[in-house]
Structure formats: structure tokens, C-alpha cells
Amino acid sequence: MKFNNVLELLEGGKLLPLVEDFYTIQGEGFHTGKPAYFIRLGGCDVGCKWCDAKSTWNPNIYPPVPVDDIVKRALSCEAQSIVITGGEPLLYPLDYITQRLKEHRIQIFLETSGSHPLSGTFDWICLSPKRQQPPLEAIYEKAGELKVIVQNDEDIVWAEQCAVKVPEKTLLYLQPEWSVYETVIGKLVEYAKQHPRWNISVQTHKFMHIP
Q: Is the pTM of the predicted complex or chain greater than 0.90?
């Protein structure tokens, strides 16, 4: 099934291709350590070689799920924050799901590459830009944080190129790509010390052995 056919089945966002949803601790970025309910959507056309969730890329293997059911599960636990992630969640219309969650005064966070138009209403947007498919220009000004995954020196250059496009108040993070963590973490620490506007993000959930 082609991607456009998937969109036709979503009833304007009342259905979404759900990979998984679960309650855990946010492991990276500004909200590290905060309990949050994760809603992971299937489908991604960015294609990072180092992606640790490649199983989410094909939306056709995740049948559309009623958003009302997802919201009901999220409300059944003690979560005060929701993270919508992927895949690339902005492939889909997110107005309905954010509206339903907002009815219950839950904070909603988005994790996105920014490569597709923004939909939905969010309390916080984590923009994680990728060189192979750069963000749309309009998303930069919406970013609460800019989190760039670093595998090599070229990624640091890319991070600086993106940093000049976000507002001054946007928090900046460099995050070592997990498979080369030991190789790059020392360099990133020194870089942040020399360029103190940058912070270091580490995937703490992997050290905690939680989702």
C-alpha cells in the first residue's frame, strides 16, 4: 500500500498508525528524567542509517488505530506529560489527538525531524534535524529545543548551521549517536565547554534499561 493510501484511511487524524504506546521516563533532551506517556507512530521517510527504530519506518505494517483508544490508555495511568514521536509523527494530521489530550490538561511534547508541515498544538517541540532531509524553515522558530544527533564532525557543523535558525531562547543539545557513544562523547563534552550555549544530551533510558 502506498503512503497516500495510508493517509486516506486516517479519517482526518481520528485514526493513526500506532507502533506502540507506553508509560516510562523520558530519557533524553530537556525533559530527561520526567515521567511521560509515549505515543510512537509508524512511518518515516527520513531514513537515518543509525536509526535504532527502523522497524517503525513502514507505516503499512501498522493498521490505523482509533485515537480515542490511545487517549483512553494514556489517561489510565498517572502521566502528566505525553510525548508524540515516531517514526516521523508529522507525516500525519495531529490536530485531533492533541485536541483530545488538551481537553484533559496534559502537557504534550513533540519529537520531530521537522521535515513535514506542523500540525497539532504542543507545549514543547524537540526539533532533531537531519542533514539528508532538512527541516522546513517554518519549524525552526517553533522549537523549544534543538537536539542534534552526532556521529562525526560533519554533524557538529550541521548543528551549528541549524542553531543560527532557531530563536535565542531555544535550548541547544548535542547528543552522541548511541553506537559510537564511547568514541564521540569526550569530543562533545569538550566542544560544549568551549561553546557553552550547547548542552549535552545522553540517552539515559539506555543506561536505565527502560523503553
A: yes
